[in-house]
Amino acid sequence: MKTIHTLKTCSEVEQSLWSTRENGKSIGFVPTMGALHGGHISLVERAASENDVVVVSIFVNPTQFNNPNDLVSYPRTPEKDLELLEKTGVDYVFMPSETEIYPQPDTRTFNFGQLDKVMEGAHRPGHFNGVAQVVSRLFDIVKPNRAYFGQKDYQQLVIIRQLVRMLGLSIDIIACPIVREADGLAMSSRNLLLSPECRASAPLIHRTLVEACNQIEQMNVKDMIGWVEARVNQDKNLRVEYFEISNAETLEPVSSWTDAENIIGCIAVWAGSVRLIDNIFLKHSTKG
Ligand code: PAF
Fold first, then answer.
1. How many domains does the chain have?
2. DSSP state at residue 1
3. Best mutation site among 36, 57, 156 for ligand 1, i.e. most ligand atoms within 8 A of its Cβ?
4. 3-state DSSP assignment of residue 286
5. 147 with 201, same domain?
6. Candidate from 60, 98, 134 with most ligand 1 atoms within 8 A of CB, to mutate
7. Rounded to two decimals, what is the model's pTM?
8. Closest listed residue to residue 124, CA positions, set 277, 285, 281
């Protein structure tokens, strides 16, 4: 088991990583908001297998919460997070205060064009601007060679790739597969907030997406959207907020299966008062 160094300030990060950089060693970075689960651990393990040094950040970023109640109820489990990380290949855990990340209010606005006008961006105004603020700030502090993001937050991944291009950063953004519970529910920190009834209903989301994927020969795009919404909504504990079928690169909605090489279906569902997201590639040009 490695000794983990916990860092609280930007200057501690700078001092700790200075010699790593001087010696030409690579830094892999996993930004998180804590309440860690198997999905995060898979990112850390991937980072450890591809880099000399791994840094994980734990910071619940207020600027990406459009709903103040969501920020208050977001799960926080710092002791358990550190225990989990001890079993992985992480070297440094950066746990900054809010003033360390934002010594002054961050007033920057980012223009992502169409990318943040749909799905999460449309339903959570300002969310991706807040994500871009914190991620750009963390990239500036940690200066990683590679950064790791889960594909569950697919739109976030596309937007962060765009952010890196916009800022001209030489950081490789590595997308990692969704990690699921045994019953198919995508792992998420928010799963901790589900009532037992909603937890029992939630696997229907992924099951429905898989069934939809198996039917693309039989259904057009419009019918599939209606079919998925109706099937999930049949469960009294679940309420679909959106199901969008989109070009996986531009995130523009498609109207036919021939509109794009890569097509993704992204869903957001209310399970009681908890909002869950998931997605599935419905058409993939590299799929064998
Ligand atoms: O995906 C998350 O957990 C957050 O959006 C991130 C990337 C850590 C930024 O706060």
1. 2
2. -
3. 156
4. coil
5. no
6. 134
7. 0.97
8. 277
